[in-house]
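Raw record, unedited: Metallo-beta-lactamase domain-containing protein 1
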Amino acid sequence: MTTRRNEVHVLFTGYSRPDSNDSSVMRANCTCTLIKTRHGRNIIVDTLTAWDGERLTQVLQSEHGLQPQDINVVVCTHGHSDHIGCNYLFREAQWHIVGACVSHRDKYLDCPLTREDSEPFQLCGDDVTVVRTPGHTLSCVSVLVRDSIQGGVAGICGDLFERVEDIIDPSIWTEAGSEDTNSQRRQRLRMAELCNYIIPGHGQGFVVTDQMRALLRQQLDSTSDRKI
């Protein structure tokens, strides 16, 4: 039995900010993450914009010795353009998962994600699973990596969390857009309770503390919808 841990590497840290020259424009790109499982599978989560293919390919090669054909699964936490732009690079992947949609070429899989079941979709046994986390969009998913090098469970959560600051200032995530704010509050607390470390959609990864969990619980309890 292997004693290695599953590796979670942020390839590019995302950002979102107003354009300095045009108040009607936002500048945004997602956090792009590589999972290297202890069983040898390579999973990429959120693939930047369609203009980032060259730099994504370069980083995979220079930092991890990987070519696009070495990626086994592509997961996009939701379908916004800054999260799916370089999917075209990974045509050898077994699955492309975009939100709750799981496909390969013209083949679409009937699975717990597409049926809105609570059961996770396994990518590498229990080590790496995909779960539905609706809120930012109703089809959003998050990726849970157990026994990660970050310690415990690492959650790659897309825009469920914009960045760590939105735990103290929820206006950051609500103003970024949410198709269901009540669901997003529930899922934010759920992921914080499941995870030791979270990688948000547009910022640095962070260690989840009990203080953060308490604040998220307080924010949920202050709303009329308290169902977890």
